[in-house]
Prior knowledge:
By secondary structure, the protein is α+β, with helices and mostly antiparallel strands. It has two helices and three strands; from the N terminus they run βββαα.
Amino acid sequence: MPMYEYQCNACHADFERLVRGDAVPTCPECGSSELTKVLSRLAPAGKIEAIRMSNRRAAAAQGLFNNYSASDQARLLKGKNV
């Protein structure tokens, strides 16, 4: 499930979304689905692990890890491989 960055054409908000299959993301500010996919910036060296963990915590908060067992979720959020 890839993470994409978007800019809303209606309100110009910038945001990231984990996108499943054919799902159409919407703007968290105004709810519009008229979005432009933007090019992601490179993460500075040494910050990649922190960014990855932050994205995993955000995915867990959105319920996107619900296909994992509770112990696997705990391992993922601690940064250990499943």
